[in-house]
């Protein structure tokens, strides 16, 4: 029972964090058709910016300022980098972001040093919210939950209920038509890219202190975000949301399952001491998302909620 | 001389200035860039400082040491390219430590090189790759290890646990590959032998470097009712594990191999106190001579980004010097024979280079994080302090060996 | 349109052009290979050349996918690695002399790599090649992660972290090569590199090679004329995997060790960079990329700690400003020289080059000063006896002035070009 409760709680929080990262990527992907390899680097920038700002002011200012700064960096990258490369096709765009991820990591190393920085949870939230089954549940995780839900609602409102959101949605599918109607499509693209990066930055701000803020954090987070976007389906925020939760829950539940292959496939007579029989479900937990990705692409290439195939 | 070595030599001026005399070339092959760069550099700086001090004191048999760093990017194949570069530039002594895969590749390559190029032998001084096999079934005359291997470290941890009567249940967690599996196996067998009443309530292996959030693992540990956790995790896996543990408010001690690695304490902050334990061959806050304190302070002043951590790097250099002086030569074979069985009196107790398997035997210390210390780490107030009953004598940690060494002819 | 060629024979290149474009480069390459041992290279040089040879074959195999087939893969090291691993096992069987393996010469190990890499690619490709584009790229990423993680779980196949090692000096000798000393390995490398290059070039001339380009450009039309694009992709993928396995076999013999890192995303990313930097639209592009990047990755770390930053910068600049890679620059320069206004072109190129060099100078000083400041070891960047402290005004002048001047020159040239009538 306690395993289930914990797996649910952690799974939802981790899933929402993944959604914060992947929602921006999904927006950018459906807009430009390009997987932004540097997206996790913006997540890292968010954490580092928040570390600097909260060092000289407070965490609460950093919470608002750092994502805005990250968004500005993103907008500049779009305006002076991606837009130039656009003419050379999707592969070139993808490779540009691939190289950019390299560059951001090296620059971060020069500016902040090669080791982890001491980015702490604010004292105000540094207390256990409640204790269940002997383990205390930190208040900061509850805070993360609220931020993620808040962002989810904000994004939904922006896209579905405002005029700007309507134009963005139209520009995603019919950029030429929107351009003919007199809207500045490149500006819309730049804004969306900036907002997407800002959301990744926000994820970095609230996750950097609960995990570790070091130059490797982008590389660690990078691949899994792609999995979310692809599994969720291209251009579908709802899909990204479902996929994030799904992956968060799968990973957390798998950790709790100690059964080995020999026990699951007992009918095949697999020996528990053989190399295959010895593998337990919990040891596979971190690779589950990639398994899901490959299976999904083979059997349902448009993802959970996607409208079109990749 | 390349720009990089020149620049480093500028920092360690004595090396370059006195390099006009006969030189002993040494090569340091470890990551100096990329994600593992810091752990390589932390050791490299220790070697540089010790080389400088030896040169200032007149060198080895009057010859100066010239140490060059080679960046292997923790990749076994790249290491072999760098090894070849080092050997070609005249280096006869190789230092390496990060990654057992790299060490295995270098041992194999050095064996082959020495067999195929007699008269041009090189020695490999391993300061951190702890797979027991290197001084057991795959031992080599050309390889010397200055760090305690995994089973010895585990012996120190289990010996400490033996004296702690309130520990009844132990949880094992590690990375799912040869090293993590070896740690788990050693813990299991040693605990059953030393404390048969202890119950091992969990034996968890997770893929290397893939877990982002360890909270579910911590909850599994807490609900198992464990009184202590043993882990061989390193790098991000260690830091994330400890962060999740500190955050869950757990007060179970974590006995680690690599808790002292760079940035771990600062990542945890005060949460690390009485939670994070490590086993090592010496810590800065041990009672020591003024000379040792002076070395620690000089190191910190010179390399503020790092802490004095790789004491064994200094030991390795000093033992090389003693051996070369004893042999009256810097020829690798002569030095290797002189090193065999040598006892070196060091700051934290004697270090013996066991002749049968070239494994250094030294005292080990179990320490935990405290705010009442002489030297902090990671530029914060917290530092390592030996726990009660945490001084493990070299004889306790000593492990038998299965090594059957082939030796070349004595010069 | 009356001038349109009526006779197909007129469209074919002349014998002279054929010789210049096809035979000559290979002859030059062979001549270089034969000339290298005469310069009595050091063992370091040989080590580097061997690494280059492996990377040339690997990058060419990769470009078969990316350049010719239009399939972007993030996991091609999987086939390189599986081929290499299989060769390591064969090497150990040769040493044990078990079964027929006892009489298999080590020299022909890459053939085994070819077979293993091809088989692995055929199996994985059977589901990953159903779609091109981003789907294919994502599947390749997922498969690479899975294979890499799996490698740590099956120690008997992959040897865990320490990998599998062997001794190449076993089995029967061929061509009088004992395979022990580096000079013997040089001939081994030379042989297989030439075989690899010639075979892969020949492949581009086959109907399948042509079809793969057609499938890249327009899969629908390929389908209309009666070919199955999925099948074409799968065949190309299999052959590309086989050649990657060949490179893996060369690597197995050279290093006598294979570790799971060889399967990871890092070498997969590296081969992508090699091919792209070299220029994926030219057959010779990946060869240039492999030579340059192998050199950079092994030797540049001796000169500067920030070599990864330079590598990243170079990659981004090439993607942004020279999408046809180094080969594009080289051949573009060559064509310009042979063009009508060669004098004007040379002048322009030289000014452009000066602008680039100025910017590079400022950038290098900036990077080198920054990393020393960041390390905090009190080192100072002192090239050629000069002294650049991070707090001296001179340093910042040396950084800012060349960058601004270089940027201005390049901008001026860019404007001029726009104004020029086309």
Tell me the number of structural domains of chain C.
2
In total, the number of domains of chain B comes to: 2
Mean pLDDT over the residues of chain C: 83
* Mean pLDDT over all positions of chain B: 85
Shape of chain B: globular
Give the strand tally of chain C.
2
Succession of helices and strands of chain B = HHEHEHEHEEHEHEHEHEHEHHHEEEEEH
**Total number of strands of chain B:** 15
Helix content of chain B: 25-40%
Number of helices of chain C: 17
Query: Under the CATH scheme, which architecture of the largest domain in chain C would be assigned?
Result: Orthogonal Bundle
Q: Report the biggest beta sheet of chain B as strand number plus sense, adding barrel if it closes.
A: 7 strands, mixed
Tell me the strand order in the biggest sheet of chain C: 1-2
Which helices and strands, and how do they pair?
The complex is a heterotrimer of chains A (310), B (411) and C (422).
Chain A: H1 2-32, H2 39-56, H3 59-85, H4 90-112, E1 128-132, E2 135-138, H5 139-161, H6 163-173, H7 175-180, H8 185-207, H9 217-232, H10 237-255, H11 261-264, H12 281-284, H13 288-299
Antiparallel strand pairs in A: 1-2
Helix pairs in contact in A: 1-5, 1-8, 1-9, 1-10, 2-3, 2-4, 2-8, 2-9, 3-8, 5-6, 5-8, 9-10, 9-13
Chain B: H1 3-11, H2 13-17, E1 23-30, H3 37-56, E2 64-71, H4 76-88, E3 93-96, H5 100-116, E4 123-126, E5 143-145, H6 150-163, E6 169-175, H7 178-194, E7 199-206, H8 215-223, E8 228-231, H9 235-247, E9 254-256, H10 264-268, E10 276-280, H11 290-302, H12 311-327, H13 332-339, E11 343-346, E12 349-354, E13 359-361, E14 364-370, E15 383-392, H14 394-397
Parallel strand pairs in B: 1-2, 1-3, 3-4, 4-5, 6-7, 6-8, 8-9, 9-10
Antiparallel strand pairs in B: 10-14, 11-12, 12-13, 14-15
Chain C: H1 8-11, H2 15-35, H3 43-68, H4 77-96, H5 109-128, H6 133-151, H7 155-158, E1 164-165, H8 182-205, H9 207-217, H10 219-224, H11 229-255, E2 257-258, H12 265-278, H13 285-303, H14 307-321, H15 325-338, H16 342-375, H17 393-419
Antiparallel strand pairs in C: 1-2
